[in-house]
Amino acid sequence: xxxxxxxxxxxxxxxxxxxxxxxFLLVFxxxxxxxxxxxxxxxxxxxxxxxxxMPSGGMTVSVSASGTVALDGALVTLSQMDSRLARALADAPxxxxxxxxxxxxxxxxxxxxxxxxxxxGAQEVALVVTPEPHxxxx
Length: 138
Prior knowledge:
Blueprint: H1 16-32, E1 47-48, E2 59-63, E3 69-71, E4 74-75, H2 78-91, E5 96-101, H3 107-119, E6 124-127, E7 130-131
Parallel strand pairs: 1-7, 2-5, 5-6
Antiparallel strand pairs: 2-3, 3-4
């Protein structure tokens, strides 16, 4: 009697290596990505002599040098900004509102915006600034 061997099968491909690659890519992009909204235009904040680190969370109102306004990275009109902020502040009055204005914008344009945001019920408003560069020779 002649016994025949079963044909050998090739081992199935493992996906463990693929899962590792996907995990490393996920971690990489989480580390290099920004977690807060960026403005759809360039904003160079003014330089400050004093200040504190900006707390995380909240909403960001960006103002370009030409006066264009964005809320959390999306271009909006002032009335759209008012309605979105009013809804957010009605749900959570302690929401931090950051004003990220370009250094070329005059303060006389920022103060009415600040009054407008405070009129909507904002209890915490912060102006984003760039810290003065530290001179190591001093």
